[in-house]
Amino acid sequence: MNLTPKEPLKEKIIEHIYSGIINEDYPQGSQIKELHLSEKFQMSRAPIREALLELVSLGVLEQIARKGVFVKEITSKDIYDTYESKGVIEGFLATEFARHSTNEDIEKLALHVEQMSDISNDRKKIVKVGEEFHKLTLKYAKNSVLLDTLGKINKKSQLLFYKNWTKLYSEIEVRQRHQKIVDAIKTKDKKIIEDVIREHYFETGTKIILLREVR
Length: 215
Fold this sequence. Notes:
- The chain is mainly alpha-helical.
- The chain folds into two domains: 6-71, Winged helix-like DNA-binding domain superfamily/Winged helix DNA-binding domain (Arc Repressor Mutant, subunit A), CATH 1.10.10.10; 76-213, Four Helix Bundle (Hemerythrin (Met), subunit A) (Up-down Bundle), CATH 1.20.120.530.
- The chain contains ten helices and three strands.
- It has a three-stranded antiparallel β-sheet with strand order 1-3-2.
- A hairpin with a 3-residue loop joins β2 and β3 (68-71).
- α1 crosses α3, α4 packs across α7 (144-162) and α9 (171-187) runs antiparallel to α10 (190-213).
């Protein structure tokens, strides 16, 4: 009897599709076929179907009646809405970090900012440190509904960011932008924190849209 749980298999397919879209193995408008994935990974279609349904619900893929599942064409509005939502939700949740954070927490945030400039010319590592930075600001967030929503938005924004990150900001700009968030959190002023984080993401979304328009 096969006792392997479906969840890890589903996640494996999701990560494969994400990587494929980022690397343009699956360009926008291309079809994702259950049979092909089933044969490639030697697994039943059930976890593959679950993975595709989840990605459709996230707006990464789209189901077209009688045709199949395709990589969704991303519009400027999709980008704007994704980053605006991300900024509003993360800004709100990060106010809990400001309320409950210890000196050690703030020091860790500052260390992440330092690491962004210490990793010479390795932009992938800089992005990874940036992800750890934002994850830390959610350490004390308790609203499970907003956290779940943010997690789904992050999945979509990850695709948009990774496909454009080499052209968005210099290493110096990355550090300055995150230092601004640290400074806002230190004020413990709810409005300042929300405004700074919302602007942080709004600027990124706007830059991605502009990059698309000049191609």
